[in-house]
Amino acid sequence: MMVDADFMRRIASAAAAETLPRFRRLAAVENKLASGFDPVTEADQEAERAIRALINTEFPDHGILGEEHGSENLGNSHVWVIDPIDGTRAFISGLPVWGTLVGLTINGDAVAGLMSQPFTGELFYADGNGSHYEGPGGPRKLAVRKTTALANATMFTTTPSLFKGEMRKRYDHLETQVQLARYGTDCYAFAMIAAGQVDIVVDPGLKPYDIVALIPIIEQAGGIVTTFEGGSAENGGDIIAAATPELHAAALKVLMG
User: Fold this and answer.
1) Which PANTHER family does the record cross-reference, listed alphabetically (predicted)?
2) Reduced 3-state DSSP string for the chain
3) Residue 186 to residue 162: CA distance in whole angstroms
4) Which residue in 182, 197, 212, 87 sits closest to 142, CA to CA?
5) Among 3, 121, 167, 189, fewest CB within 10 Å belongs to which?
6) Nearest to 254 by CA among 149, 132, 158, 161
7) pLDDT in single tens digits along all 257 residues of the chain
8) How many C-beta atoms surround the C-beta of residue 40 within 10 A?
9) pTM, to two decimals
């Protein structure tokens, strides 16, 4: 299914109107966890409200799953999955590597999605006819680079501390196999796979709204996204994205033992 690129831009613009005025001007940060730290801001909440309003107006019979304001009509064939600010920790730290994620699933399959970074003026989206970039340097179609060997690969994870026990040992071993390992950047690292800048991203414990929008952006650029078990990534979980099937298989062999 093709999704109108103009609708993607309208979503990105509506979210940016709520996030940008609040970026680096934060008043209050709430913590969603009684033990630990899971921040949420007014920018998260208002951006999601704006996105939901657009979707409800344009597609009143579609379902919505959002991080901040819950779900509606999840039994419908078409469901939009929203993370208004993926990378809230980066947002509250003033780092421009957060993004607005909005994806569309049809019967459970992610078919279209966008990642918008309004501070840098960048929009990454997949509309069913490939993956696209709009921003500095001008518009272009996105394509993964054809890295097949771990020794030549750049890999990202949010932080190795998310890997526990035996899995941490396997992650550390994987890190020794790649050319370059970097941390952080949340959704931005996944977008960089589609852009041909990064080769592997491994992140455990993701929610659907962390990954659904990014699946079609990576897949329609030629990449692959699965769980560590090799299954569908649409429901979240422990997620690996890679530029090529060969690289995906090589990384999983190390990760899963």
Assistant:
1) INOSITOL MONOPHOSPHATASE, INOSITOL-1-MONOPHOSPHATASE-RELATED
2) CCCCHHHHHHHHHHHHHHHHHHCCCCCCEEECCCCCCCEEEHHHHHHHHHHHHHHHHHCCCCEEEECCCEEECCCCCEEEEEEEEECHHHHHCCCCCCEEEEEEEECCEEEEEEEEECCCCEEEEECCCCEEEECCCCCEECCCCCCCCHHHCEEEECCHHHCCHHHHHHHHHHHHHCCEEEECCCHHHHHHHHCCCCCEEEEEEECHHHHCCHHHHHHCCCCEEEECCCCCCCCCEEEEEECCHHHHHHHHHHHHC
3) 13
4) 197
5) 121
6) 149
7) 678 999 999 999 999 999 999 999 866 566 555 555 455 688 999 999 999 999 999 999 999 999 888 899 999 999 999 999 999 889 989 999 999 999 999 999 999 999 999 999 999 999 999 999 999 999 999 999 999 999 999 999 999 999 999 999 999 999 999 999 999 999 999 999 999 999 999 999 999 999 999 999 999 999 999 999 999 999 999 999 999 999 999 999 999 98
8) 18
9) 0.94
- Name the nearest CA neighbour of 213 among 65, 93, 14: 65
115 in Cβ contact with 187 (< 8 Å): yes
Q: Which amino acid is at 52?
A: R
Do the beta carbons of residue 56 and residue 75 sit within 8 Å?
no
Residue owning tokens 């589609």: 194
**Contact indicator for 170, 254 with CB cutoff of 8 Å:** yes
| Overall size of the chain counted in residues | 257
Q: Which residues neighbour 231 within 8 Å (Cβ) at sequence distance 6 or greater?
A: none
